[in-house]
Design goal:
It comes from Streptomyces vastus. The protein is α+β, with helices and mostly antiparallel strands and 148 residues long. It contains 5 helices and 4 strands, in the order H-H-H-E-E-E-H-E-H.
Length: 148
């Protein structure tokens, strides 16, 4: 198997978009938004499926967090080829981040990891992070870091 250079990948994306239109639009059609009112678990499963399609083979989710220490993110994704690790907290569009979750997310981000809080309305961002654009995940701009 041969490695594809970034220049080759960029050319491929350009040719695809010239022939088929906006890649973002194609991706949005391929992965429809979770129905309004869907729960956090349904949203998490959809993102997990998207991640698998893009080669994020390493996926970890604590099945029963009631016996775990509070605050750990819902999902950890690993992409072997990109050497990336991503920590994600899933919320509904109206869900709130608990203090222990806020503390863990802020700590992981400050330690240099890719960390995100994803809601169904964030599907375009999810596709940019997990897909070929390889955008680096980040906490939302309005994320309030805990006070020390």
């Amino acid at each position: 198997m041969t490695a594809v250079s970034e220049a080759d990948e960029e050319l491929y994306r350009k040719l695809l978009s010239e022939r088929y239109g906006s890649l973002e639009q194609l991706e949005a059609e391929r992965f429809p938004v979770v129905a309004a009112g869907a729960g956090e678990e349904q949203w998490r499963r959809q993102v997990r499926e998207i991640a698998a399609r893009y080669g994020w083979r390493l996926q970890y989710h604590t099945a029963d967090s009631r016996r775990s220490d509070p605050g750990w993110p819902d999902e950890v994704f690993g992409h072997l080829g990109q050497r990336r690790t991503l920590f994600v907290e899933f919320k509904t569009d109206t869900g709130r981040i608990r203090p222990a979750q806020r503390e863990w997310l802020a700590h992981l981000a400050a330690s240099g990891f890719e960390v995100a809080v994803w809601r169904p309305r964030d599907l375009p961002t999810v596709l940019e992070v997990l897909g070929p654009a390889r955008q680096r995940a980040a906490l939302p701009p309005n994320f309030r870091r805990p006070t020390p």
